């Protein structure tokens, strides 16, 4: 039997003007000795969940649902009876702040207090226990006589931990214990928690927005958004392959997991009480459909002990390639097998990088995926139709491709207006005025001036960076669901390349379209890619999370590719006779 | 407290005192009239004996009132430095003597009123806060706030009319029964309490609402603090949570206020003592003002001001003892 069983818990805060559903139907169960992580942004209802398990919400909150602790329904226990369970059975380590401890009582007294109440032991013995607890959490017992304001944030957090452990609880709730701690202390507390759990067999609920901390402790995770569970399952699976777009956003925003990637948050604000009846995440989602705005999704099992609340069953596959082959005829009846049996998926809203040497078949693959080239065999499906029968390039929400060389992909003789508006002209979309408006919008999007003067400029008069952005605007004007960027920065100098790339990633992050980014430049790719596919001789030899591929490459050719990065300013090959001078330089560099 | 802070406090105290001294000196002199227009007449009686010009001049010279004001001020300061508060023109005895004669009565009713208003105010505040937004809380709030709007002298007059004139439960005037023969100390204390009862009640009621509101509101604020939730989480039980955690913190501002309350009551005593004809320094001050007895007015105002300053200082020191966050 589970230690703790929470069923359909709802906590609504009643303010003067509105009702805020902080927790909106959460169920969870906790086995004895299990560590469960509860993850979510601020305002997702995590803390309310912790407080309601301890029945600590004040009169302004209306609570429904049931909380069963070791077979006893504690939801409606009278206050004196719940007081017997509090701290003795269920204790909580509060999030540290200056007000969390009574400012006019020494911390020692505050730790001793519950001991006297629940264990009914003499004061002297309680004080000795308190000193032991202090040592356990790595605090000198002399601090027992200090007042809360005399302690640092980290010390206060330790006191809170010591306090929670004082009556040897069976279930420990930890609310954002690491948010006030530096990296060293955080690691120490984590190790301490693991030790304590092993020694005393506590069950723990770890409430935090710190994904890396939680994932290093919890065996199972629950992801909250706007007071609801959007995903739950084993920690490893959730971190490696999140199913909900929100979870993916969180994982991708965690620098400890994606060590190389630039930091991009989930766009938009956390859902507040805006009153629409659909999925609370739909406004920030990368793959909303009609039903998402009208009815909230239910949490449903998706196998392997995982659950996800999404009308689309989690992150949906946008494009799928199945056994795709393509050969170029060479002189002398030979053929070049440019794409040799590629299977791959691109999910909604993700950035997949295809990396490989020149002539490894990347661009050919890109052309096939975009529907420009027809594969000899195999199939590419976009959304629900085959790429080759659809008209994905000609409609809104389809596939657009931006090419490597902006000088040949945009005509010198076109004005900027002609170049960007071209897809509308070809596909006969909108009136002239609408086309102009949308052209200006698209230019703004790529940070080009939407002025008449600029619109009238000939592409031939633009710089490389500007021209590539014009090409990008031409693609963006069709509001693609999938953007294929084929070596778009390789013709640009480093600074321009960086600007274009950040612009592109920024657009992708805000708009939520999926992107296939093709490049031979591994370092650059790592800055933006969620997943990396390594291509060699027409095959995808390795595909996985960007950091996984980078840190633990499996294929030898991938290892070689990673090893080819020239990188650093500090080299250790010294020219003869210059050793002394160079040595100091090297150490200068090394110290940075 | 370190030495520099100590010095700073003393410096502030001295500056405040000097400002008060200057005001004390200037304000009485700005009143129309002078001590001799009413000198020969009894303050209480209606007949006014007008002095001749020569007599007035003589008295002006005698009391040094003919000298320029700055000169008078400096000689006042000089005398004060020697501990001499001057001679009362009206009572024709040393000001210090007059004050010593009446001050104990004022101290008695002020301290009693402070104690009563603080204790009752805190208790009512606790009851109100614990029943927040319930009927009893709303009733008490509305009642006490409305009550606080009644000026204390009016309240005094009403009490006087009901309890002294109609019900004849309490004496109309004085601090003790004149020419009484006490059978023992208890008897004497009983008599004093009997006389002091209504003045103390009036003063207490005047201050009650302030203490009540402060206690109630601080307690409500404190009860939303995270450390109260922490205490509740520890399963300590309602009683300990309220007494040890909430009240202890909520009473801190009440302590500061008590020093302030004593000051307010010293001022309030003037009106209340006049209404009840209670022989404290409030009544004496009123008489001194009517008689334009400059030295006595200055003396009493000084005593009142210094006691207010001392009370505030004391409250500050006490606060430092109670709140560890205040750096000693």
UniProtKB/TrEMBL annotation, chain A:
Pfam families: ABC_tran, oligo_HPY. It comes from the Archaea. It catalyses: Ni(2+)(out) + ATP + H2O = Ni(2+)(in) + ADP + phosphate + H(+). This is Nickel import system ATP-binding protein NikD. The keyword ATP-binding applies. The complex is composed of two ATP-binding proteins (NikD and NikE), two transmembrane proteins (NikB and NikC) and a solute-binding protein (NikA). PANTHER family: NICKEL ABC TRANSPORTER, ATP-BINDING PROTEIN, OLIGOPEPTIDE TRANSPORT ATP-BINDING PROTEIN APPD. Gene3D superfamilies: P-loop containing nucleotide triphosphate hydrolases. InterPro entries: AAA+_ATPase, ABC_Ni/Peptide_Import, ABC_transporter-like_ATP-bd, ABC_transporter-like_CS, Oligopep_ABC_C, P-loop_NTPase. Residues 4-251, 319-562 form the ABC transporter domain. SUPFAM superfamilies: P-loop containing nucleoside triphosphate hydrolases. Its EC number is 7.2.2.11. Keywords: ATP-binding, Cell membrane, Ion transport, Membrane, Nucleotide-binding, Translocase, Transport. The keyword Membrane applies. It is a peripheral membrane protein. It is found in: Cell membrane. One of its GO terms (molecular function) is ATP binding. Transmembrane segments: none annotated.
From TrEMBL, chain B:
Signal peptide: none annotated. It is found in: Cell membrane; Membrane. PROSITE patterns: ABC_TM1. It is a multi-pass membrane protein. Pfam families: BPD_transp_1. Residues 103-315 form the ABC transmembrane type-1 domain. This is ABC transporter permease.
């Amino acid at each position: 039997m589970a230690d703790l069983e929470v069923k359909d818990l709802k906590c609504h805060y009643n303010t003067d003007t509105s009702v805020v559903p902080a927790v909106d139907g959460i169920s969870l169960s906790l086995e004895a000795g299990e560590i469960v992580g509860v993850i979510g942004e601020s305002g997702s209802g995590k803390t309310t969940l912790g407080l309601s398990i301890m029945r600590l919400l004040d009169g302004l909150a209306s609570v429904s649902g049931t909380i069963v602790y070791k077979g006893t329904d504690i939801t409606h226990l009278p206050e004196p009876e719940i007081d017997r369970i509090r701290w003795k059975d269920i204790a909580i380590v509060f999030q540290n702040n200056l007000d969390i401890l009574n400012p006019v009582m020494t911390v020692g007294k505050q730790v001793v207090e519950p001991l006297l109440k629940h264990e009914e032991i003499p004061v002297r013995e309680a004080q000795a226990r308190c000193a032991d607890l202090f040592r356990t959490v790595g605090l000198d017992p002399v601090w027992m006589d200090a007042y809360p304001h005399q302690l640092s944030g980290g010390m206060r957090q330790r006191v809170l931990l010591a306090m929670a452990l004082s009556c040897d609880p069976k279930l420990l709730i930890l609310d954002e214990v690491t948010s006030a701690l530096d990296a060293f202390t955080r690691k120490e507390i984590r190790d301490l928690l693991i030790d304590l759990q092993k020694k005393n067999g506590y069950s723990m609920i770890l409430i935090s927005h710190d994904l890396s901390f939680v994932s290093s402790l919890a065996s199972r995770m629950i992801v909250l958004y706007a007071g609801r569970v959007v995903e739950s399952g084993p920690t490893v699976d959730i971190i490696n392959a999140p199913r909900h777009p929100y979870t993916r956003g969180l994982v991708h925003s965690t620098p400890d997991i994606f060590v190389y990637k630039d930091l991009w948050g989930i766009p938009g604000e956390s859902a507040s009480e805006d009153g629409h009846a659909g999925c609370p995440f739909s406004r920030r989602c990368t793959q909303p459909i009609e039903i998402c705005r009208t009815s909230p999704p239910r949490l449903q099992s998706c196998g392997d002990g995982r659950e996800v609340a999404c009308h689309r069953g989690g992150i949906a596959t946008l494009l799928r390639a199945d056994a795709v082959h393509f050969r170029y005829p060479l002189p002398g009846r030979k053929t070049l097998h440019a794409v040799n049996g590629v299977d791959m998926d691109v999910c909604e809203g993700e950035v997949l990088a295809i990396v490989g040497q020149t002539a490894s078949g990347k661009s050919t693959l890109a052309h096939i995926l975009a529907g420009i080239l027809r594969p000899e065999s195999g199939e590419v499906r976009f959304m629900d139709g085959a790429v080759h029968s659809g008209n994905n390039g000609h409609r809104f929400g389809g596939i657009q491709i931006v090419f490597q060389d902006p000088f040949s992909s945009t005509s010198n003789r076109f004005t900027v207006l002609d170049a960007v508006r071209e897809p509308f002209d070809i596909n006969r979309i909108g009136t002239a005025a609408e086309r102009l408006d949308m052209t200006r919008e698209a230019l703004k999007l790529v940070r080009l001036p939407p002025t008449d003067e600029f619109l009238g400029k000939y592409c031939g008069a633009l710089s490389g960076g500007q021209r590539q952005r014009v090409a990008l605007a031409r693609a963006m004007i069709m509001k693609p669901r999938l953007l294929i960027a084929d070596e778009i920065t390789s013709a640009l100098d480093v600074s321009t390349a960086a600007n274009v790339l950040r612009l592109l990633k920024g657009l992708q992050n805000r708009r939520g379209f999926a992107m296939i980014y093709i490049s031979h430049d591994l370092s650059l790719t790592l800055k933006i890619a969620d997943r990396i596919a390594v291509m060699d001789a027409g095959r995808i030899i390795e595909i996985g999370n960007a950091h996984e591929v980078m840190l633990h490459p499996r294929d030898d050719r991938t290892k070689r590719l990673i090893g080819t990065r020239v990188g650093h300013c500090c080299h250790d090959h010294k020219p003869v006779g210059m050793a002394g001078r160079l040595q100091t330089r090297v150490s200068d560099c090394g110290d940075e | 407290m370190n030495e520099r802070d100590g010095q700073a406090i003393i410096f502030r105290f001295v500056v405040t005192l000097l400002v008060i001294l200057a005001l004390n000196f200037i304000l009485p002199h700005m009143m129309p009239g002078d001590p001799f227009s009413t000198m020969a007449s009894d303050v209480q009686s209606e007949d006014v004996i007008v002095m001749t010009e020569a007599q007035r001049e003589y008295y002006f010279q005698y009391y040094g009132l003919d000298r320029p004001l700055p000169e008078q001020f400096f000689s006042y300061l000089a005398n004060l430095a020697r501990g001499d508060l001057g001679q009362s023109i009206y009572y024709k005895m040393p000001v210090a003597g007059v004050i010593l004669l009446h001050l104990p009565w004022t101290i008695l009713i002020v301290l009693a009123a402070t104690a009563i208003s603080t204790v009752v105010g805190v208790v009512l505040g606790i009851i109100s806060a614990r029943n927040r937004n319930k009927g009893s809380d709303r009733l008490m709030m509305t009642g006490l706030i409305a009550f606080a709007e009644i000026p204390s002298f009016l309240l005094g007059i009403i009490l006087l009319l009901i309890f002294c004139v109609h019900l004849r439960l309490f004496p109309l005037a004085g601090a003790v029964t004149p020419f009484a023969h006490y059978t023992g100390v208890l008897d004497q204390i009983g008599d004093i309490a009997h006389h002091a009862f209504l003045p103390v009640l009036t003063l207490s009621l005047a201050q009650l609402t302030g203490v009540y509101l402060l206690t109630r509101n601080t307690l409500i604020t404190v009860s939303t603090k995270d450390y109260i939730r922490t205490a509740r989480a520890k399963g300590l039980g309602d009683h300990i949570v309220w007494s040890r955690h909430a009240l202890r913190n909520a009473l801190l501002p009440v302590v500061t206020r008590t020093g302030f309350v004593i000051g307010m009551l010293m001022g309030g005593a003037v009106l209340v003592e006049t209404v009840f004809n209670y022989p404290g320094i409030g009544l004496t001050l009123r008489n001194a003002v009517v008689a334009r007895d400059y030295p006595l007015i200055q003396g009493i105002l000084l005593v009142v001001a210094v006691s207010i300053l001392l009370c505030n200082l004391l409250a500050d020191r006490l606060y430092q003892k109670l709140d560890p966050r205040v750096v000693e």
